[in-house]
Amino acid sequence: MTYYAILKAARNQDETALKSALSTTLIDISKPGKCEYTAVAHLAWENNTESVAFLLKHGANKNHAAYGAALGGHHQQVKHLIKQGANINWIAQGAAQGGSHKYTEFLRKKEGASINHIAAAAALAGYVNYAEFLRKEEGASSNWIAAGAARGGDTEYAEFLRKKEDADINWIALGAAQGDHVNYAEFLLNKGANIDTTAQGAAECGNQKYAESLRKNQNANINYIALGAAAGGHRDEAESWRKKDADIDWIAQGAAHGGHCDYADFLRENNADIDIIAKTAAEAGHNVYAESLRKQGANIGDIAFYAAMGEHRQYAEFLHKEGADIKWIAYGLIHGEGNQVDSEKSAFQFLVHIKNETFRDELIRALARHDDLSGDIKQQLPSIQKRITHVYQFKNKYDLKLSQAIAIQQQRMSPSFLLLLLMPTLLQDKLNEQDNSIRRPALDLSTATIIMRFIYPLRAAELQHINFQLVRFYLQRSITQYCTPPSVEALSLNSSVPPHNETAQNFQLSIQTQNPEAFFTSCREVVKHTKNQDDDTKGDDPFIQSVFRAIKRNAT
User: Fold this and answer.
1) Alpha helices in 58-181 (DSSP H)
2) Interatomic CA distance for residues 132 and 135, integer angstroms
């Protein structure tokens, strides 16, 4: 098998063996039954950097390598490949499929990775809860997720999305065929799925026998099969279809989609259309190759349109800076198969993560002017833009993460959590106006205990965002500094309040990290005990003990 021959040659750094293997196939041929899982992806998953470098030197696609590195959780290797031009969506797919969902969310929220690429990869790997979160809460497309589930063999989840969430049967059949799940693909064909795209998926995963049976027995279109074969890196099969009069532009489209740049260039030399190749490369996230073709004369408008269709936001934004008309990007968003702007939720989620305010506002105006955008979404765009403005104002004012600001704006975050997020700002030391070397807590005892009363109702899902050590230090210091609640006027005017001596580092040394439930119990106990300072019942809770040690110090 040529995939295994390439893998072996790379492990042994054997150029002769690699050359022999490449005489009949492409360097990024997919592993049998696994679309887009190439030799370089597997070696990157292993973190075999020497073998990865060997294949990259001989033309392997950096996106496949980055996908494999992210799949294996090798973030240093990923960073190295990003510098070489690897596409963020390929990386996010690998991270989602590999279970690195914290990293995936970072890529989505900070680096602009596509939610649909992520959700599909999560479903493919069986991370149903994560995929459902992205679908229900963040607006990810049911079609993408169902296709991923089918490709991964999770027919139960795919069927749920088809029957209950109207996922497109053709997407699901394509995914089933790409994953080599022939029985499920046949079931879907009997339900009315498209024969051509199913045959395409079969050819892409290397099941040429099934693809050929669909052509012979059910008249599957030869061009779809040739496209699939080229996309999967099966050059001999693609060439055999070309000799049988398959359209060269379809084959070139498949080669570009799979990132097989050398083969696409070969087909271009044989009169394949450069614009078709360039826009397909852009849609699939092969930005470096698309850029090389743009510089050779490929149409920038087509490339921008397909980059937006493929949900490669960073590249679309770059092309706009290079002169692409914003209307083509808007057009690509509207007609993209990921439903990026077909509902208020999906439009908000897509637009809010565009950090460049100028580009975002220009894109919103272009969408509002576009005839193909639904009237309902057009009417909601001013509201969406206003919400996004509020999110960024809130984020910048209180130094919050974008995800936190979004959750607050959408009222998905409780007031108690908001209060806790703002603690570092609310409890900052106040400088003594007469002597700025003296610092004192910003809150008095009464205010601090009231704040703690608000902390109790937090939901478990919110707790992971809290820096408990920092918050506990601020609360403890404010309470213990003011054993007797002064008036607000005295707090603001009295310059003789003694400065605190216990630093955050001292506090962290004396109190080990507790779990959230124990922390809230401590808060309740502190509230109770500070109402009656003669009560010495402190138990063995370190937070309470620290509070009362400080009370005792101040009393003496």
Assistant:
1) 62-71, 75-83, 88-98, 101-110, 115-124, 128-136, 142-152, 155-164, 169-178
2) 5
Cα angle value 536/538/540 (rounded, 5°): 150
In this structure, what token pair is assigned to residue 39? 């030799």
Helix, strand, coil percentages (3-state) for the chain, rounded to 5, are 70, 0, 30
Q: What single-letter amino acid sits at 408?
A: I
In this structure, what is the dihedral angle of CA atoms 60, 62, 63, 68, given to the nearest 10 degrees?
Answer: 80
pLDDT at 137: 84
Give the pLDDT mean for 121-132.
97
Residue 443 in tokens? 């809150």
Overall average pLDDT of the 234-261 stretch = 97
Class of domain 1-84: mainly alpha
202: CB partners within 8 A, 6+ apart: 177, 180, 182, 185, 208, 210, 211, 214, 225, 228
What's the maximum distance between 2 C-alpha atoms anywhere in the chain? 96
- Mean pLDDT, range 424-445, rounded to an integer: 52
Residue 415 has pLDDT above 90, yes or no: no
The pTM of this model reads: 0.75
Report which of 409, 403, 443 is spatially closest to residue 423, judged by C-alpha positions.
443
The domain locations on the chain are 1-84, 194-261, 415-555
117-131 as b/e: b if 16+ CB within 10 A: bbbbbbbbbbbbebb
DSSP 191: T
Question: Residue 415 is encoded by which pair of tokens?
Answer: 């007031």
d(CA 461, CA 482): 33
